[in-house]
Specification:
Layout lengths: L1 H31 L5 E2 L4 E6 L1 E2 L2 E2 L2 E3 L4 E6 L10 E5 L2 E4 L9 E3 L5 E7 L5 E6 L1
Bound molecules: copper (II) ion.
């Protein structure tokens, strides 16, 4: 009978801890979702980079439209200087404030890896 009580307490604790972890991770997934491209006036779209640990969160964009890259305030240090090498052409810039823009050309569908200018932090730009 005593063993059953202990088992009951353990199960209860698993539920409590599990519930906490679940609620917590659910709260976090809201932030983890890659921001979708925002349409700008004219033929461009805005993609906002966010930092996750020492990397960038994946971001998405639409094919065939110029891309303007910004970095929100979660992006720190050298990750504020994203670097793209797209078919041999290099695009980089120092996005000192969340308003600074790195301009990319319209891209074809595909997954474009990028990094910080030092090659320490990585991210993916998914164009679809
Ligand atoms: Cu770096």
């Amino acid at each position: 009978m005593k063993n059953l009580t202990v088992l009951g307490v353990v199960i209860l604790m698993i539920f409590l801890v599990g519930g906490f972890v679940f609620t917590n991770s659910e709260g976090n997934t809201g932030n983890v979702v890659a921001p979708n491209p925002q349409e700008l006036q004219g033929d461009a779209q805005l993609v906002i980079l966010q930092q996750e640990n020492f990397n960038y969160k994946d971001v998405t964009a639409n094919a065939g439209k110029q891309i303007q890259i910004k970095a929100d305030s979660s992006v720190r240090g050298c990750l504020r200087a994203p670097f793209f090498n797209i078919k041999g052409k290099k695009y980089s810039g120092y996005l000192r404030t969340p308003e600074d823009i790195l301009q990319l050309p319209a891209l074809e569908k595909g997954v474009y890896s990028f990094s910080c200018s030092m090659g320490m932090g990585y991210g993916k730009l998914i164009v679809g």
